[in-house]
Amino acid sequence: MEKIKVPSKVGIFISDPGGRLGSAIALDSVLQRLAKMKNVGRCEVIADIWSDGFLHSVMEDVKAGNLNRILWVGRFSPNQQKRLKSELASAELNPYLHEWCDIEEQGIGQEGTDRDIQTQKATMLIQMSLSRARFLEALEPIAMPAVESVLIVGAGVAGLHAATSLSKLNKKVYLIEKESGIGGKVAQLHRLYPRVCDPRCGLEFEVKKLRESDKVEVHTLSQIKSLEGSPRNFEVKIEKQPRYVNEERCNACGECNKACPIQIPINEAFSPTASGKGAVGILSKKAIHPSEPMNFPAAYVIERTYCPPECRECVKACPTKAVELEQTPSEIVVRAGAIIATTGWDAYPLSKVEEYGYGLYPNVISNLDAERILENPPELKEIGFIQCAGSRDERHLSYCSSVCCSASLKQASYLKEKLPDARIYIFYQDIRTPGFDEELYQKVKALDNVIFIRGLPSTVKPDGDTGRLKVRAEDTLSGKEVSLNLDLLVLAGGMAPSAGTNELAPLLNLPRNNFGFFESHLQCHPEESQRAGIYIGGSARGPMNVSQSIDSSHRAVVESLQFVDGTFLVEPTYPVPDKTKCDKCKRCMEDCPFSAFYFDDQGFPTPDLAKCRQCGNCMGTCPLATISLRNFTIKQMAAQVQSIKASFLGKEEPVVLAFLCGNDAYYAARAAADSGLTIPPNVFFIKVPCAGSINNAVIADALSIGIDGVLVAGCKDGQCHYVKGNQLVKTRSGDISDKLKKMMIEPERVRFESLEIRDSEKYVNLINSYIQDLRAMGPNPFKE
Amino acid sequence: MPPKVDKEKCDGCKAEKESLCEQICPGDLMTLSEDKKGYCRMPRDCWDCMSCIKACPKGALETRIPYQLGYHVARLIPMMGTNTITWTCIDINGKKETFRFINRGSADE
Amino acid sequence: MESAVKDDIPQYSLCVQCGRCSSGCPVAFESEDTPRKIIRFLQWGWLKEACESPFLWLCATCQVCKVRCPRGVKIPEIMLALRRTAQQKGWVMAGEKLLFYRTFMEMVKKKGRISELHLGLAAALGKMPSHPIDEALLFLKLLKRGKIR
């Protein structure tokens, strides 16, 4: 860190409109004490800071070089802070050279406390802020150039919607898809609930926009190979598999398809024969066929693995000479400011749910298979649906897949339309139709011969040689056992993370949750992955239905815009390692929740400014205390701590120092003072960006100058905005407690607590009980 | 007496090539075992300089004072602040004394 | 279930088996079955089970279930329809309950009004009283209090 060349001259201005502070504390003696401090240029109590004369005199002093940092004491709203900063910016005072000290939120000015003690505490609080202000540096926000393009991985319904809305915003889009055509899972569905319309209709609507836009580049048969660069300027290598048909020349006339001699299977669909026996009917296609699932791009594709090597029928048949059998995999490199992962979901492999005989009996099919036969269902009498086949099951998917109930209801209603005489049995444990899907449920309930059975069958067996299935279940509602013979059994399989998700996660270094989907802060930033510049849209994040995934992809688009807007602004309060002290232990890299660090050319860990969210966890975890957020350095924190005189209440009375997380615990403490709860004079708090930014060295400092108790207050588990800051500081403060134990000092002198934003009362009770405990323990042996 | 490692706490400096105790040991005595926990490979050569104890970010190391100086109750524990070091010295009778020093190299500001 | 019978019974398939009818029913404690269960039998198409349930004859048609039903199922009407079906099909549980209802209806048909004394005696004489002395004592007690007129 660079040395401060010009000595700091801090102007301390205590705003006291109406004399409220003056009546609570002896401001004269505060001023006297402060005036003697190092680096103090001017020190005044101001009744009206907005008076012209005052601001003018401050500007004069700044211009003359008598003041170069300002500490404002009192309560200033964010707007007032902004105004003061901009007023003084005209006198060329950098806006980062202001420090704010609100002594009222620490309990000063409350009735019922001794005036002398309050005066002493207020002095110390101002001294604490002064020691921070002294080390402030002039900073400028950093503008980084950002590429105005977005890479979208996966051209399912979420990816398509993201691509079209970005193109409307005039951003370049690279849409990559590993299948030969776009559309994903939704294009394979027969009908969508709740309107029971054909999904192709909605998809074509988006594809039309794609065709019209010159901003979207679609790459099919493509997969990401590697990712380099940083948010706002990613460099992505993409591998393209050969299509064997020239996309530009092919006009999809279909002549090749007629000529192709090779039939390949597409999927197995159910069709009972006349005798009533179940059999597998095989629909088929040719080895050269239109793009799948949707024929966009409108070019054919050859599945060469099925082709005999010498066959050239398609080449001969093609009138436009588009078939190019000698194509090889190619690689392209694109630059993108942000990435949106819309890799979607895969059906859970139902063959793993062995008891239901999927794959064993031809008339046990999955709900996705059912979508394919709904188009033209064979004559069926008795049809069963088993819900939660694999979902909500500790042996398979432990979560609820959230769409299968509505999907089965949709299929049942559609089947009843086609086969009015069929009897449909739906085995379920709970019917979950959130929101307006309830309407669908009621609609199906009102149908004749649709029976809902609360109770899942334990096994499915063939019914002798009839080709039908025998299913036994307990109808828990009537308490009777039922035994049914079914023609067709549909298993409502769950949504599992897709193969694309599995491949992408290591390539993009994206963390995943316990279930294998991409991890994000579900309540506050659902679309933000834990890697800056990478966003998650649609069911790559978890089970969701079509409209939810469209929603989610649009949110991802909005979030991604910050990185693709030409310039990306970085607050200059990012962490900087002190290279003279850093010994490259890499702990900061390990503990960074957003893996923002990389090695610079000398091998020092350095944060990537576009990835860093400035939580300060690196600063807290550094064993040598060498990393600091700019203008929130460890040195400043230590100076703040050392400004506290631990014996100001007498040796026996404990003093508590609380480090409060700026996201919730700080608000709780401030609200406690504002709402009139009595804040004991024994407590001082320091606001930190995240509890994880508190270094053990600072805690050790506090203890060694005789502070009786250190309270670290962070978020509850799983609520931390920076993923795991609270857990990191919890283990670290545990380490220091253990050290205290060895030193024959009570380990409770360091305490970690979780506080939520509205826990004002809990905060005050906590402090009071802590003070009680500390009184019982006796003074800190280091206290002088 | 060589440093004693608390295996529960030691995390091998999170898969670093050389753990911090290994880097700092002037006699090159500390190293990582196969399970990625620090240990002293030549206990007889350790001269109790306490460097590793101060360097350990997890507080997993502890020096036992040689029996010529004190029995097992006796301890010497450093606690590192930002620019201070606080020593706690516990003698054989459990009597405790503490000393606080400003670190060298940080007195310049 | 034949369509003639089915048409006679008001809509029951909308029932989601929440059980609110049974929890509010003032007479359900008397029987093993509850209104929910009877509707469940109907949803399965088990008309005979529904008709044979003794609960059918316990129902006081107090309408609490109908008022509380979130799906608008007319449970008392269903019970009445089932009583009719049960009699037509001869699926009625033999015993005092049916005897009581028959006597009641005959009396209404014959005289146009009810005499409690007559009804009680007719019902008691028509069956073999299980506890003749107890019932006789109860009868005297009710008579003394003016509960039977």
What does this structure look like?
The complex is a heterotrimer of chains A (784), B (109) and C (149). By secondary structure, chain A is α/β, with parallel strands linked by helices. Helices cover 29% and strands 23% of the residues of chain A. In chain A, the strands form 12 sheets. A 5-stranded parallel sheet of chain A has the order 8-7-6-16-27, with helices on both faces. In chain A, strands 18-25-19-20-21 form a 5-stranded parallel sheet. A 4-stranded parallel sheet of chain A has the order 2-1-3-4, covered by helices on one side. In chain A, helix 5 (115-134) packs antiparallel against helix 17 (634-642), helix 11 (404-418) packs across helix 12 (437-445) and helix 18 crosses helix 21. Chain B is 13% helix and 29% strand. In chain B, the strands form 3 sheets. In chain B, strands 5-6-7 form a 3-stranded antiparallel sheet, with no helix packed on it. Chain C is mainly alpha-helical. Chain C has 2 domains: 3-89, Alpha-helical ferredoxin (Fumarate Reductase Iron-sulfur Protein, Chain B, domain 2, Orthogonal Bundle); 96-144, no CATH class. Chain C has 10 helices and no strands. The A-B interface holds A 583, 585-587, 590, 621, 623, 625, 634-635, 637-638, 695-698, 700-701, 703-704, 735-736, 738-739, 742-745, 781-782 and B 9, 13-16, 20, 23, 55-59, 62, 75, 77, 79-84, 86, 88, 90, 94, 96, 98, 100, 109.
Q: What is the CATH architecture annotation of one domain in chain A?
A: 3-Layer(bba) Sandwich
CATH class of the largest domain in chain C: Mainly Alpha
Question: Which fold does the CATH topology of the largest domain in chain C refer to?
Answer: Fumarate Reductase Iron-sulfur Protein, Chain B, domain 2
Q: What is the percentage of strand-forming residues of chain C?
A: under 5%
Q: What is the first-to-last residue Cα distance of chain A?
A: 33 Å
State the secondary-structure class of chain A: alpha/beta
Alpha-carbon distance between the two ends of chain C: 44 Å
The average pLDDT of chain C is 83
> Remind me, CATH topology of one domain in chain A?
FAD/NAD(P)-binding domain
The largest interface is: A-B, 30 and 29 residues
Strand order of the main beta sheet of chain A, please? 8-7-6-16-27
Mean pLDDT of chain A: 90
